[in-house]
Each structure stands twice: as structure tokens, then as C-alpha cells.
Amino acid sequence: MSIKIRLQQSKFKEENRGGKWHARTVNTGDVTTAELAAEIQEATTFTRGEVEGIITELVDVIARNLRDGHTVIIDGLGRFHLTVESKPVSNPDDFKISQNITGVKLKFVPAGKRNARNKKVDDFGHGARVTWWEDD
User: Fold this and answer.
1) What's the CA dihedral at 55, 57, 58, 60 to 10 degrees?
2) Residue 80 near residue 66 (C-beta atoms within 8 A)
3) What is the distance between the alpha carbons of residues 115 and 123, in angstroms, rounded to a whole number?
4) Which residues contact 131 (CB under 8 A, 6 or more apart)?
5) pLDDT at 126
6) What is the pTM of this model?
7) Mean pLDDT of all residues belonging to the chain
8) Within 13 Å of residue 56, how many CA atoms lie on the same side as its CB?
9) Residue range 55-81: average pLDDT?
10) Helix, strand, coil content of the chain in percent (nearest 5)
11) What is the CB neighbour count within 10 angstroms for residue 37?
12) Highest-confidence range of 13-22, 37-46, 121-130, by mean pLDDT?
């Protein structure tokens, strides 16, 4: 398998980006928890139900720790942490959480190793093949 791409024209108005064509990945399907559990079951001695239970509990534990302000590190997968979006103020005394915080977002940084040759981080995309999407 490979990552499929198609070209999409930018709708931005800026001179450096507006109207230019960029590669965009095409989602070729979703994989559910049940499907992941079935794959893991095939590779381990755990039943699909046990794996689904573990995944469900893992999600709950990650969410709870994120809400408590922790960064969650899953070895081999990456780091999860929450960030906030806010409206800026000129004077720190004018900042009000209820008025200036506009959202909370989840950030994910994949695990990987820095390549000494090109200084880039090799992560889950390392070695992926990229091909054109064939519109049917």
C-alpha cells in the first residue's frame, strides 16, 4: 500500500500561496478500534474483546491525564498534550479566562529518531511510498 495524493489549488489570496497547486493526501479509508483489535488479536494471545477493552481504557486514561495537565508519552507512538488558543491582550491585567480563552486543542508529536545525515526526524511516515490517487 501507499499514501495517495491529488493536487488541490490553494484558495488563499496571498501572493506567495494564492492560486498555486499543492499535493494533498487522500483518505483511503478508516480503521476502527474493532478492526485494530482484530489485527492485534492475530498477532498476540489476547482475545479481540480483551484488546478492545484495553484500547478503550487507554483512551480514558489518556484523556484523564491530559485534563490533569500532564503530557502523555506512549513509547514508540509519541507525545500528547493539550494547548489553549487565546485572544491577545495588551495588558496582562485585562486577561480573563472566560473571555480570552477561545479553545483547547490536542497536540501530538510522533515518536521518532533524528536522522544524523539530514537532521530530520524519521517517524511513522518514514519509508512510506507516495502515489497518485486514481479517481474512479
Assistant:
1) 130
2) yes
3) 10
4) 2, 3, 4, 5
5) 76
6) 0.75
7) 89
8) 7
9) 96
10) 30, 30, 40
11) 21
12) 37-46
Alpha-carbon gap, residue 68 to 60, rounded angstroms: 12
- Which residue has 483511503 as its cell numbers? 28
Kindly tell me the burial class for residue 81, based on how many C-beta atoms sit within 10 Å of its own C-beta (0-12, 13-18, 19 or more): middle
DSSP 8-state assignment for residue 93 = G
Q: Which three cell numbers stand for residue 62?
A: 489518556
pLDDT of residue 136: 58
**27 to 45, 78, 125, 128, 129: CA distances (angstroms):** 31, 22, 15, 15, 15
Taking the C-alpha atoms of residue 4 and residue 25, their distance in angstroms, rounded to an integer, is 6
Say how far apart CA 18 and CA 86 lie, in whole Å. Answer: 27
The identity of residue 22, as a single letter, is H
Nearest of 42, 40, 63 to residue 53 by alpha carbon: 40
Q: Around 98, how many Cα atoms within 13 Å sit in the side-chain half-sphere? A: 0
Query: Is 61 strand, coil or helix?
Result: helix
Q: Which three cell numbers stand for residue 112?
A: 521518532
